[in-house]
Amino acid sequence: MFKRMISSTTLLLFALVSCVLLTQQPANAGKIKLNYANFPPAPTFPCVQMERWKVEVEKRTDGQVQINTFPGGTLLGAKGMMDGVIAGQSDIGNICMAYQPGRFIVTNATSLPIGIADAKQGSLALLKLYEKYKPAAFKDVVVLTMFTNAPGNVMSKVPVRTLADIRGMDLRASGGAAQILKAWGANPVGMPMPATVEALQKGTVKGIFSSLEVMKDFKFAENCKYVTMTETVIYPFAVVMNKAKFNSLPPDVQKVMMDLKEEQAMWTGKYMDEQIQKSIAWSKEANNVEFISLPAAEKEKWVGKLDFITENWIKKANTKGLPAEQIISDIKTFAK
Ligand code: DTR
């Protein structure tokens, strides 16, 4: 009798626990897990925007989707990012298009010296350009967002006040920015941003040409005590997703991601522009960095050396059958 009581209590308990487990299961079983690869270290702006996107997607899908982020090249590195996402090694990845100049001809036109003033303008112009032309380079992925950094300046170990000072100087830059350094007479050394930390420390390069948030985010201000304000050239980025993976998502999740596309571009542009101001203040106050403004006559010489770059791009893009002049004029209009 007693034994029977125990076994029926056990049975009841078992039934109850199973019930609880079963009702909980669908939420967890339905959880979609996505990997998001990024190449630079976690504190830098491409990774900060990644974390913001993750939080927003998880929130807006009511926890249906879980994004696992991999900063610092732990899942895919800078150069293997695009093909890695196409091959499904990561579901999502962030690419810097300047690292593969020949591959992203249309979108890399935003990195011509055409007077984009800040990251917000740049990000909007880039995304609109992509939406208008839908370049074939992206046909195997789904674009989740695009953004740019802010215009580049020369950060160096020794002061650069004139074109004579920069002549022959080994400076790190990639893509469109490398052409600009060359036009000024410097010696551009190409490498992705994460490799620059060691190159600066070892002295392989004497400085870098990029947006100023890196003075703080990569602590370059500890090595580069001079900044020459050239204020030209942005780098375009894209966050891309494996096409089959995107197509396998429920429509409401796809909608959340697509609705975030422009908002995320704007958020990142704004974050970058604010970060630049913080980085300038920190470089001056904590690291005694000198910021050099080129006098108008000197600046004119620097700017004048760049005209041929856009002209050359137009000629080259025309031979590829692209509406080159229209692309340039669109970027300028979209940036406003
Ligand atoms: N200027 C490009 C892009 C860039 C600017 N800031 C960061 C931070 C982390 C990675 C890339 C970038 C470059 O020099 O690579």
Question: What descriptors fit this protein?
Answer:
336 residues; alpha/beta; D-Maltodextrin-Binding Protein, domain 2; 2 domains; six-stranded mixed beta sheet; five-stranded mixed beta sheet; 50% helix; binds D-tryptophan
Summarize the structure.
With 336 residues, the protein is of the alpha/beta class.
Task: Lay out the secondary structure.
Elements: H1 2-29, E1 32-37, H2 45-60, E2 65-70, H3 81-86, E3 92-96, H4 119-133, E4 141-148, E5 152-156, H5 163-166, E6 170-172, H6 175-183, E7 187-189, H7 193-202, E8 207-210, H8 213-217, E9 226-232, E10 236-242, H9 243-247, H10 251-287, E11 290-293, H11 296-304, H12 307-319, H13 324-334
Parallel strand pairs: 1-2, 1-3, 6-7, 6-8, 9-11
Antiparallel strand pairs: 3-10, 4-10, 5-8, 5-9
Helix pairs in contact: 2-10, 4-10, 4-13
The structure holds D-tryptophan (DTR).
Would you write up a description of this structure?
The protein is an alpha/beta fold and 336 residues long. The chain folds into two domains: 28-149 and 234-274, Bacterial extracellular solute-binding protein, family 7 (D-Maltodextrin-Binding Protein, domain 2, 3-Layer(aba) Sandwich); 152-233 and 287-307, D-Maltodextrin-Binding Protein, domain 2 (3-Layer(aba) Sandwich). It has 13 helices and eleven strands. The strands form two sheets. A six-stranded mixed sheet has the order 7-6-8-5-9-11, with helices on one face. It has a five-stranded mixed sheet with strand order 2-1-3-10-4. Helix 2 packs antiparallel against helix 10, helix 4 packs antiparallel against helix 10 (251-287) and helix 4 (119-133) crosses helix 13. It starts with a helix and ends with a helix. The relative contact order is 0.16.
